[in-house]
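Chapter summary example: a protein plus zinc ion.
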Amino acid sequence: MNRKRIRASWPARLRRVMIKRKAAPFLIQERILARRTHQCPFCHRHIEEGQLEENLFVCPECSHHFRLHPRERIRFLVDPGSFRETDRDLTSLNPLDFPGYGEKIRRVTNISGLNEAVVTGIGTVEGWEISLAVMAFQFMGGSMGSAVGEKIARTIRAGVRLQLPVVIFTASGGARMQEGIFSLMQMAKTAAAAAQLEQAGLPLFIVLTDPTTGGVTASFGMLGDVILAEPGALIGFAGPRVIEGTIKKQLPEDFQRSEFLLQSGFLDRVVERSRLRSTLAFLIKTHTLPGRD
Ligand SMILES: [Zn+2]
């Protein structure tokens, strides 16, 4: 009996875990699978976690860029040991007493290991100091509630205060419906902060990652002095189905993907993940005035 248990395959062990903890079987299954292999949603190849991580979470077969956790993104971008996180404990309240919102925030915090849908701080890229914000689609779809907007605005204002370039990685489904008008106000707040940065003569570099939609696209997401995007990222305001329903026309297949937006003049460049760090370092260096290093 014991031997059988030891030899049980991992799906059998998974079933036992699921039986023990019926409350969240799919989450448990997802976590256990995540430790072993990922399946590429485009070419369907199974890739071992280690190999995928080595390849910066880009599929070695078809170059599909997987979505990144902000901690991974920061690890791949900044110089080791240079990142100092800011406003880590800043999180949304429930200003409209939206039913179940507080509970949802607690649940997502436990699963994602994040307090909000953005991680912010100061770090260096190839020795150049920047004020950095990295959004997290893993946290309520990267929705921009009041805490997210505040953290983004503070990141931009830190650039003004410390005379640093600002780099923001976006990943968002748009406004956070549970905060209603408070969420929509973040568009104005972040856009105003971007204007202050511009007045101070400092650059804002935006990297749009999959997916960036809604209120983020409609505010600071499109206000960068240089706007980069990862390959194949979904970028837009409303989703394609909503647009097709409104204009009663079928949209092109690659509509709202980075490459299409580049051709349409919305982006400056589509950059593969392996070249993002060196591209950003080049941009930061060339946009920093002499004596301001
Ligand atoms: Zn693939």
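Key point: The chain has one domain: 67-286.
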